[in-house]
Design brief:
Blueprint: E1 12-18, E2 23-30, E3 33-41, H1 44-54, E4 59-65, H2 72-79, E5 83-87, H3 103-115, H4 127-157, H5 173-180, H6 186-219, H7 221-228, H8 235-244, H9 254-261, E6 265-267, E7 276-279, H10 285-298, H11 303-316, H12 318-339, H13 367-392
Length: 402
């Protein structure tokens, strides 16, 4: 029996796309029925053009999981009028007893979950934002490679007693001039200059990247000023956070920002038992690393963070305390963007004071008026506590004033 072809004109078609390296596997669902499954070459423009031929007159909504292919496919699909979301792979529900994984099964799951409204998209940066991230991300491996070369150089000098084992001297151009004047064995005299040339080349690359980062900071002066006003943030960290997080007002609330950075604790609670474990580790580990390092460097300069760190470290330890301090610091940076101000060091919040007695006339001392006054006093006190909580995790501090 031949199945009748379903016309999708005027309907909404949900498309799940599995994006391996060489091909795209596509499953299309319309009216809760699978209407098409195809495997096409991994060419975003070609796939976008094929959709218009497959479903003329239909409204297309698609989803695929984030991966190595980044957002090229997303931009190609949106250009032809399709609504597309990119999904975090860790947020997709998979049954514990589902032990079979194929591209067709995955694309079918994306399409069905998308049609049922169970998928949420992540933030998709623009092409300019992606290009701006390349400089800080390129700098990081070069710094690590240069440090590795410096360790290799010391490892060759230690066995011959040319430097002390406990020496903390850094490799620099001055130290190379001193090493060149030493009477070295022939073999060591050959191997050291090779490492020295690699070290100098990496140094020149870092100097060029520094120049480009300064030019990028001038082009993003508003972001740069806010990030540089935070204690513990220098030129490199400011560029990293500015390109990775950008204007933090794009996050709906502070919880969304902390969840993006992976700093909130994981939780496994049931009934009265509350169990919290290690941090969630979602998002970029690079950003999380710099936020923790910034919190360490900001502690000596910000007494508010010092009090938070000391209060938590007494009972929970220094590691948990610095993570909590980093979360608080991140929320305060976001508040700077929300209020359009620079970071304020060592100050507490000042929530507006409500005069609850002025709400009702002074002569209203009947039974109903007294009950209204009591209710208003309680409600306003809760409002003050909420504003303290919001302000405390925001611009000026994290605790009630003493």
């Amino acid at each position: 029996m031949t199945q009748q072809r379903i016309s999708s004109a005027g309907d909404r078609v949900y498309v799940g796309v599995e994006v391996p390296k060489e091909t795209y596997t596509v499953t299309c669902v319309c009216r809760k029925q699978r209407v098409k499954t195809a495997t096409v070459p991994a060419e975003p423009a070609r796939l976008a053009a094929s959709w218009l031929q497959w479903f003329p007159g239909a409204t297309l909504t698609s989803a695929y999981e984030a991966g190595f292919s980044a957002f090229v496919l997303h931009r190609a699909l949106t250009q032809v009028g399709s609504t597309n979301i990119v999904v975090n792979p860790a947020s997709i529900a998979v049954a514990a007893n589902d032990k079979v994984k194929t591209d067709r099964r995955d694309s079918k799951r994306w399409a069905i979950d998308l049609a049922d409204g169970r998928l949420r998209g992540i933030y998709v940066p623009t092409a300019a934002e992606e290009l701006a991230r390349l400089l800080p991300r390129t700098r990081a491996p070069i710094v690590e490679h240069r440090a590795t070369i410096a360790r290799q150089i010391k490892a060759k000098l230690h066995p011959f007693g040319l430097i002390a084992p406990a020496s903390r001297r850094l490799i620099s151009n001055r130290s190379w001039r001193e090493i060149a004047a030493w009477a070295l064995p022939p073999d060591l005299h050959v191997s050291l200059p090779l490492l020295a040339e690699q070290w100098r080349f990496a140094t020149r690359q870092l100097l060029e990247i520094r120049r480009l980062l300064r030019a990028q900071a001038v082009a993003q002066a508003e972001l740069e000023q806010v990030y540089r006003s935070v204690p513990g943030i220098g030129a490199v960290v400011a560029r990293t956070l500015a390109t990775e997080l950008g204007d933090m007002t794009r996050f709906a609330h502070e919880r969304a920002l902390c969840s993006y950075t992976g700093l909130p604790p994981s939780e496994y609670s049931s009934g009265p038992a509350v169990r919290r474990g290690h941090i969630s580790r979602q998002g970029s580990g690079r950003v999380r690393h710099w936020l923790i390092e910034t919190a360490w460097r900001a502690l000596p300069r910000d007494k508010v963070l010092q009090e938070i760190f000391a209060r938590i470290a007494v009972t929970r330890g220094k590691k948990r305390a610095i993570v909590a301090s980093a979360r608080r610091l991140t929320g305060r940076i976001r508040a700077c963007f929300r209020h359009g101000t620079m970071y304020a060091v060592g100050t507490y919040a000042s929530a507006p004071a409500y005069d609850w007695q002025s709400v009702l006339p002074l002569g209203s001392w009947c039974h109903t008026a007294r009950r209204q006054r009591k209710w208003l006093q309680t409600a306003i006190s809760r409002m003050q506590c909420k504003e303290w909580k919001d302000c405390g995790s925001a611009l000026y501090g994290a605790r009630h004033s003493h």
